[in-house]
Amino acid sequence: MTDTPKENPKAAGHVHYQGRMHALQKEIITRWYKELHGVWQRQQASNAVPLPGSGATGAVPLMISGNCVELLQAFDLLPVYPEINALQLAIRKKALEYLLKAEDMGYSTDNCGYVKADMAFYLEGAETAQGTRIPKPSLILNNFVGCNTYIKWFEHLAHFTKAPLFTLDIPFLQGEEPDAGQIKYVADQLKDLIRLLEKVSGRSFDIDRLREILKLSARSEELWSAIKMTAKNNPSPYEAFFDATTMMGPLYVSRGTPEGVRFFEEALREMEEKVRLGVGAVAKERFRVVVEAPPPYPYFKAFRDLFNTWGACSVASTYSCVGGTFEFGFRHDPRDPLNSIARHMLVHNVCNRNYIQRYDQILRYIKEWNADALIIHSVKSCRLFSAGHGDMREFFTSKGIPTLYVESDLEDPRYYSPAQMRNRFDAFFEALEHKKYSTKGAGV
Amino acid sequence: MSGKLEAALARCRELTEDMSYASVRSHKEKTGDGAIGYFPVYSPLELYHAAGYLPVAVHGGGNQIEITAADSRFGSFICSIVKSTMELGMKGHLDVLDGVVFHDICDSARNLAWLFERNFKDKLFMEYFHLPQKPDGAAAAAFLGGEYERIYTKLAALRGRKPDLDAIRKSIGLYNINRGLHRRLYKLRSERPQDVLTAELSLLTRAGGILPVEEHNKMLADCLADFEARSNKPRDGIRVLVEGSFCEQPPIELLELLDAVGCFAVDDDLLIGRRWFDQDVPVKGNPFSALAEAYMKSPVPSSVRHNPGVPRTEAMVQRVRSNKAQAVLFIYAKFCEPGLFDYVLFKDVLEREGIPHLLIEFEEKMWTFDKARMELETFVESQLFAYD
Q1: A20-206 and A210-436 have identical folds
Q2: What would the pLDDT profile of A118-155 be if each residue is shown by its tens digit?
Q3: Mean pLDDT of A210-218
Q4: Mean pLDDT score of chain B, rounded to an integer?
Q5: Is B309 on the interface with A (CB under 8 A)?
Q6: Contacts of B139 (CB under 8 A, 6+ apart)
Q7: What residues of chain B lie within 8 A of the CB of A378, using their CB?
Q8: Residue A322 carries which DSSP code?
Q9: Which residues in chain A have their CB less than 8 angstroms from residue B308's CB?
Q10: How far apart are CA A112 and CA A383, in angstroms?
Q11: Nearest neighbour of A407 by CB, restricted to B72, B75, B337
């Protein structure tokens, strides 16, 4: 197979993945961390809730899945995402020291690494790699959307920080549509939350302000969706797994702000320009793949290299839908704010949808984004994604879709074996290439 | 041990280890009832009973089956009960059932439900419901009542029955008796742990997952009388609170070991779903609301129920004090996310309160108990020495 690329670690190590959107993303995330640090600094002078003075009224941790960040923004409260705390530690190779500290406290090696790293991070002073601090929570918003571990995570955070805890209980989606009782149940809880946020922030609820924020969110979602659609081009200008991870930060932190809209406008422009020029996200696109589940953050770059070496571009991913399945049409609706937020949490994010719905989503990606194969990265930490991945492999294999199943973790470097992972990827792509040529270019 | 009690316990063991579910098959043939499986932890059995089904606990395969197929569906880091339940489905053990009901105790169990739906829908219906994780909101009870009505109506229709609220009230009454008998057994065990051994009590409760409630009630009442008549001499040992086996059940051999080494459980959360209510559920009024409100108001702490108003940590300390326990023994299933997470908070609070504790992990297929024996013996001896 003369066409099979020989792996050149040196060359792979020099691949430059960053476009302009990466620089913009860095600006947004750095600014957000600085704002959080500002809250932390003001907390040093006062423990009052709401925080006196100008600027943000406080900081509220919530989880990414189906998050209702717009409600916090409407009260000038800054979101804190513990998942981002944890992944930042992992991607900067700092996770293991925090994981070991957590295990010293009694956390099991079998518990979610995100939770362990984040809890140790809080207890060690919550100083980020950038040298900024994460403030003490004014309130912990336990948005229970699909992931049962969220509940434990926030119970622990409340136990150790003594901050008040509010739970948004989102029933798990069974069919395609929730019933009226489920929407009412969630919308009623949102009303309770609004009353609480008024107290925590010292601000009165202004529904017109929420509508404005939702209008901007809808625009960001429209743009984000359009970016995902550019991956239908051949070659795809957009790496829908690794680059999506970069873009998810702005999506969760600032989608309801003019800054967020500008980010997504710029990112879409970049993708459209690449389409016009015929430039792909990988140098020579040879395989189009769909990726299921989160990345191994401790080996993020090395994992990406495994794809890049083979000219494999992710054209769609389920992980990029944790915060919302916007590419299938959902937009926040400023005309119906609370029901719209409720529907986002109930229906339009991958975490609150059942496993069979995820199979359907992946099938749709494979068909509509014209993918060659599915890669399942089964992470030990996150059972929401991984419990049942063997069945998923069986399902897609039975449909004739080449499927690679590998196991590691999103936080814990001890579960990633570089050599074994490389062998699995190389063997898979070699077989895929063989199949491609043996079917005379008809695709696999 | 009286011959009658011994025979009853032997029958319990036989029933719970029979993975062919012969007694369920026989009940169906005899009565014309359906049979519905339910996954732990709590399930409203009254609704299934009233809709014309025998509720059957689907609590994995214990140490009675080999996992040869389900390993291909779940990763290496998934707990035994999820895998062995899948195995039961794949090997046809559950074909005797009409369907299985799940709820979201954890992410693995939730995904298992949808794997059942995909793999077995031609022979088993799958029903799923949401137990609110928000006990402090009035809306939650109303929502749960709606969930119960939805499930009951659907299940009754599948049996060709029209909704019958009186039938549900009658079922609530039968399960009230069942829970009341459990409460009396647990009270007796707390007072005289030498007369009601943990393995025996566990077998009795487990049998309730197979037997019709009417028959189980009679068995519990008879065994209670036999236990009350017992007068074993107290042995050297310590009084412990056992926590952590609310879902996957430890091998009976491990529970027998507790008694053997002098680790006398005075309270536990083994199959806590069978004992969810500390008082009777009202049999008057709307039965869906009654069951829903009873669930929401129940003070029974559980690792699968978020209840910030009554923190499980503080409830554990109270349980230790009220049962005069000297220590807490955590018995967690390997890979059990809810349990192992809770351990961290329990540990923090127990150490604050100066209450000794020990953690043991198990798997359904655990077959050697030497390590557990050594840990338990050492723990008991260290506590006996400390209390002398």
Answers
A1: yes
A2: 999 999 999 998 899 999 999 999 999 999 999 999 99
A3: 98
A4: 95
A5: no
A6: A184, A185, A188, A189
A7: 75
A8: S
A9: 155, 158, 165, 167
A10: 9
A11: B75
A409 with A393: CB under 8 angstroms? no
pLDDT band at A181 (very low <50, low <70, confident <90, very high): confident
Selected residues 79-138 of chain B with any CB under 8 Å from a CB in chain A: 82, 104-108, 110-115, 117-119, 128, 130, 132-134, 137
How wide is the angle at C-alpha B240 spanned by C-alphas B234 and B246, nearest 5°?
125
- DSSP conformation class of A298: G
For chain A, the structural domain boundaries read: 20-206, 210-436
Confidence tier at B137 by pLDDT (50, 70, 90): low
Question: Is a pLDDT exceeding 60 seen at residue A15?
Answer: no
Q: For A72-85, b where at least 16 C-beta lie within 10 A, e where not — what string?
A: bbbbbbbbbbbbbb
In this structure, are residues A185 and B139 in contact, taking their beta carbons and an 8 Å threshold?
yes
Could you please state the CATH topology (level 3) that the domain comprising A210-436 is classified under.
Rossmann fold (3.40.50)
Strand residues in A55-131 grouped as ranges (E) = 58-61, 77-80
Q: Give whole-number Cα distances, B25 to B37, B48, B171, in Å.
A: 13, 17, 21
- pLDDT category of residue B135 using cuts at 50, 70 and 90: confident
Residue A130, pLDDT score:
85
pTM: 0.95
Q: What is the pLDDT of residues A379-400, one digit of tens each?
A: 999 999 999 999 999 999 999 9
Across the interface, whether the CB atoms of B348 and A165 are under 8 A apart is answered no
Residues B101-121: what's their mean pLDDT? 97
**Closest listed residue to residue A222, CA positions, set A326, A96, A297:** A326
On the question of pLDDT at A404 being above 70, the answer is yes
Other C-beta atoms closer than 10 Å to the C-beta of B336 total: 27
Look up residue A135 and give its DSSP letter. Answer: P
Mean pLDDT of A422-441: 88
B98 vs B300: which has the higher pLDDT:
B98
> Residue A6 has what pLDDT?
40
A112 chain-B contacts, CB cut-off 8 A: 337
Please identify which residue in the block is written with the tokens 């470097």. A413
> Which amino acid is located at B46 in the chain?
E
Three-class DSSP category at B330: strand
- Which letter does DSSP use for residue B252 in this model? H
pLDDT band at B359 (very low <50, low <70, confident <90, very high): very high
Reported ipTM: the value is 0.95
Angle between helices A95-105 and A113-123 (to 10 degrees): 90
Q: Within 10 Å of residue A213's Cβ, how many Cβ atoms?
A: 22
Whether B140 and A389 lie within 8 Å, measured CB to CB: no
Number of other residues whose CB lies within 10 A of the CB of residue A21: 22
Cα–Cα distance, A157 to A423 (Å, whole number): 40
**How far is it, in rounded angstroms, from Cα A319 to Cα A232?**
18
* Stretch 166-205 of chain A: residues touching chain B, C-beta under 8 Å: 167, 169, 171-172, 174, 179, 181-182, 184-185, 188-189, 192
Tell me the CATH number of domain A20-206, given options 3.40.50.1820, 3.30.420.40, 3.40.50.11890, 2.60.120.650: 3.40.50.11890
Cβ of residue A40 closer than 8 Å to a chain B Cβ: no
B140 contacts A169? CB cut-off 8 A: yes
Structure confidence at residue A7 (pLDDT) = 39
Q: B341 and A355: CB-CB below 8 Å? A: no
